[in-house]
Design a protein that fits this description.
By secondary structure, this protein is α/β, with parallel strands linked by helices. It has seven helices and twelve strands. The strands form two sheets. It has a six-stranded mixed β-sheet with strand order 3-2-1-10-12-11. Strand 6, helix 7 and strand 7 form a beta-alpha-beta unit. The radius of gyration is 18 Å and the shape is globular.
């Protein structure tokens, strides 16, 4: 292994596990995640990012399912960073945060000189009471006028202000930024059925103002997709259960996860295993 490769940051990433113990593949989730964790460890992953939709069921079973799959991922010996998906919030957000050990559904962390910013795409949505009058108007517009998918949502005014502040700070500190969002931010990386962040155009416009934003990693769509916009890589990862479309509660039997490697480079590229980020 070259010196540059050995100095690279490696982390595991998985999305859309949709754990449901009542399905055949639900019972295989534990074994599938154990294989993923073993692979991440072999690849030298320092931490894992889970991009949302850990569970499928709603109602009283949702909490038990969330705790079960959380504990499966906790077998990884390093830190696991969780991003909430729409299915994760089949319970009150405060309860979800308590179970997952989160103070907020949007947050930031830095490692190896790289700033990661996790977004809460369900901040303004059918499952959340708007925090401000502006958020109330935003919800009414997308819900009643646009008729946007109810299982998607938007980033509210307080979170947008927080995002700009974090991006300003990262730029001042000369940190490359990677955005984490369960919901995709570009139309070309999803389809009409799955949808995307309601106010994706506003959020994308903010991100493109910052030359240090390198990538946005998302899930939700269940199929892999990728696009480049303004020098930023927008990558949607395939669902844990394979090519992702639910067929009467069944998934493809091949489980999908990735190990991402980040290193300094003069080019910017992404595959399922390697991302080169210009520092």
């Amino acid at each position: 292994m070259s010196e540059k490769a050995s100095d690279a940051l490696r982390f595991g990433i998985v999305t859309d596990i949709h754990y449901n113990p009542e399905t055949e593949t639900g019972n295989e989730t534990r074994a599938g995640l154990e294989r993923c964790i073993d692979e991440w460890q072999r690849e030298g992953a320092e931490f894992v990012i889970q991009l949302g939709d850990l569970i499928s069921r709603e109602g009283p079973e949702a909490e038990a399912d969330l705790i079960a799959v959380r504990d499966m991922l906790a077998r990884f010996p390093g830190k696991v960073y969780h991003v909430a998906g729409n299915h994760c919030l089949a319970m009150p957000p405060e309860r979800y945060k308590a179970i997952m050990g989160l103070d907020s559904l949007y947050y930031t962390f830095a490692t190896h000189g790289i700033r990661f910013i996790a977004l809460d795409g369900m901040d303004v949505s059918a499952i959340n009471e708007p925090q401000t009058e502006a958020d109330r108007h935003l919800l009414e517009y997308y819900r009643d006028v646009v008729k946007a998918p109810f299982y998607c949502g938007a980033i509210g005014s307080k979170q947008l202000e927080w995002l700009v502040n974090e991006l300003d700070l990262a730029l001042k500190n000369e940190e490359p930024v990677i955005i984490l969002s369960h919901l995709p931010l570009l139309e070309e990386t999803t389809d009409e059925k799955h949808g995307l962040l309601w106010n994706h155009e506003e959020v994308t416009a903010i991100l493109l103002r910052y030359p240090n934003v390198r990538a946005c990693l998302s899930g939700h769509y269940h199929s892999a997709a990728q696009a480049m916009r303004g020098g930023v890589q927008f990558v949607v990862l395939s669902a844990f259960g394979g090519d992702g479309e639910h067929k009467q509660g069944r998934f493809n039997s091949e489980f999908s996860s990735h190990t991402v490697m980040i290193s300094s480079s003069k080019c910017t590229s992404f595959s399922s295993s390697t991302m080169h980020v210009i520092k």
